[in-house]
Amino acid sequence: MGRKTRSDSNGIQKIYRLIAVVAGLGVLLTAGAAAAQKEWDVTARSFVIMDAATGRILLENNSREMYPPASTIKVMTAMYVLDHLKMNDKVVCSRYAACAPASKINIKAGEVYTVKELLYALLLSSANDGARALAEAACGSEAEFTRNVTRMVRRWGAYRTKVATANGLPKEDQYSTAEDLVIIFRRAMQDPDFAEIISTKYYHIRGERELRNHDRFLWTTPLAQGGKTGYTRAAKHTYVGMFQNGDKAIIVSLMGSKKKWADLRSLIEKGFELSGAPIAKLEAKEERLRFARKHMGNSVKVTKKKSGKKRSYKKKAKSTRVRKKSSVSMSSLAGVPDKKSKKK
Q1: What is the pLDDT of residues 186-213, one digit of tens each?
Q2: Which domains does the chain have, with CATH numbers?
Q3: Are 59 and 274 in contact (CB under 8 A)?
């Protein structure tokens, strides 16, 4: 082999320097990406931000991955019912509806409600018993109802959704996607009855029963137009809802979230930034809302007036004390910090 020349040595040194520069840029880019990820951090498995006016997707992550939708299914249930029943129609509740697990409004077999009452219970208090009662009223059985709802949402473009229960309770062959949820919710918000119900903070049925909306954003920011929450162990936290800032409106969905409210605040801020109507950073108010049991919960004490005296009526279920400790509802004192509050 021949002797290396000075020019060869200089060439090799230049190559090494070039490699060092590229490696340094790689480190900087990696650090920058890590910093950006830390700043823009959501725990949800998938999410979508949609421009409500155009239907254009502004931002998404794993938007077509199929996950359990939990109670966001109730948006679909409400839309089918609104298309097939009248608000003043009477619904006789079955034993099957009454046996639904919480959350519920404690329907009893044989009780009669109007469709309107059950829709408010469905969308505000996420009533699983109300969902079953509506399904049976609309189609005769929950099984037939879910087949019809699946066909309905697929006609709307939600091709990766299959409905197997009227309330979103876990079932193996039930799934949806973050993309399908925003498509469905955009369609739902075009129905004036649905839009009115979903944006209502609280509603009374049968006099003493107060239903409170589980969407905490309605209590914390004027941007909120209404949304549907959901949670099961399998699904984690799910959500779909609309927010408006001036003439710009966005629809946000997420699935599989560990920190729903924190994730949603980040997505709302990012959504309005991308839509051209940026907002100030949202305060973390949702986790600090104070709760009370003054609505129709699982074992809530209902006080009635009779002959000038107050009488208290309690459910006689053996599990009343256990359930009472775990019941949570929106309080009219929303916004008051309460560190002992439980997440919904």
Answers
A1: 999 999 999 999 999 999 998 778 999 9
A2: 44-326 (3.40.710.10)
A3: yes
